[in-house]
Amino acid sequence: MIEVARQRVATAYLARFSSALNRLRLFPQSGAPRPNLGTGIRIAVVHPYLLF
Q1: What's the pTM?
Q2: For a tag on the chain, would you pick the N or C end, based on fewer CB atoms within 10 A?
């Protein structure tokens, strides 16, 4: 049962990561700017993770 739950959580995060990264790819200005990480760097949030 725990393994099934882990797989479901992993699958859900993969879908959310893919969606967020695809949005940044299609609309690069849509992410929050993070100039302290480098020129033109933007992030997307998939709680509790930051993707950049």
Answers
A1: 0.81
A2: N
